[in-house]
Amino acid sequence: MPKKSEFIHVNPLFARPGEDTLAPRYTLGAGQMLPETAYQVVHDETMLDGNARLNLATFVGTWMDDQASRLYSESFDKNMIDKDEYPQTAAIEEYCWKIIADLWHAPSPETTIGTSTIGSSEACMLGGLAFKRRWQHARRAAGLSTEKPNLVMSSAVQVCWEKFCNYWEVEPRYVPVTEEHPFFDGHELGKYVDENTIGVVAIMGVTYTGAYEPVAEIAAALDAIQEASGYDIPIHVDAASGGMVAPFLQPDLAWDFRVERVHSISTSAHKYGLVYPGLGWVVWRSPQMLPEDLIFTVSYLGGSMPTLALNFSRPGAQVLLQYYLFLRLGHDGYRAVQQASQDVAHYLAHGIEEIGPFELLGDGSDIPVFAWRLKDGHTDNWNLFHLSDRLRSRGWLVPAYPMPDDMSDVIVQRIVVRNGLSLDLASKLLDAIQEETAYLDKLESPMPVEGQHPGFTH
Questions:
Q1: CA dist 395 → 48, 49, 131, 346, 355 (Å)
Q2: Any coiled-coil ranges, and where (predicted)?
Q3: Which domains, ranges and CATH numbers included, belong to the chain?
């Protein structure tokens, strides 16, 4: 097998007189390259990436309008942490999380606290840290040990929660999903919590299936546990996707600060917040839910401003894009955009169900995401990994992967409908799924399964 080249071969048509036609791939070149040549090399290498608009594996937004792109280019240089240099960007950050706090029914949006983050993973980490620190303070005040904290969550959580538990030495306690309980609903929750439980995580938009976990039911189970044991355990809602969908498509659903046990909520602005990556938000019910020793104070407009983040220097442009969208769309605009995505999800889900071999796991009625599996006994000649590969050959990224532990023998395939997937494009995808399914169903012998691996699930 040929060895991978250690050099980039520059087409003579790209290079200018006096330039080398070979550039080292893994070391810094000795000389300079003209910007036109460097641009062309990088531009051509990235042509090997997939088409973002056809990537139905990711939740991350891939399209914004021309005015947003213009605003983005005008604010590339703004550093979110430098609030003295960019005080108005700092003020706009505060506008945004107060808008979000109001959207999530915080008791007093004007006086609560929140922050922007690089993404919802950082936002989740901050929510988890607040849980751990509050638990430590309460235990120390009572003269009790602060060893062995634990966090309870579904086995279907996003990997950032595994990272949180690993990095900050918290025991993860996973409630398994099963055929009878396909998402975390508070069932037998008492088996997982104890005096060392710092909190419980509920997910609004499970990445595997798109389903909402019933926050109010989980809170009711914790109420019963508190009555029986005295354990007062808070909830963090990981609303990476649903936090910017539910307020517009399911406004009467009580999942947010209307549920008193919810202490904090996080979301990804670069998912259904409709902003380019990376931006997240986290908001607490009240300042009392965020321990003061996690907050740093910085100079701001002649006064001081609280700040908290794992990252220090980070881009401010995405914060401005979020405010642009809040101004541009308003409540009605967000509802229209999310409804359009949900309509496409319903169209695709029911179209796929009608093909015949597939059983739906939801139809996009929560967030515009749904999954399906092969019906038992349909075929031994192919599986959903084969269908995923066939679709990839046509440009569509539609991942296949196993469900989490206790359902890991169930292979599903998933579509994430985002702003930018039109009904017209969706009809072409449905045609492709029908055609490739028909091709696979005509096979007279099994397809090889060696080398199959899960697609991107998060």
A1: 12, 11, 43, 22, 21
A2: none
A3: 7-49 (no CATH), 69-326 (3.40.640.10), 336-441 (3.90.1150.160)
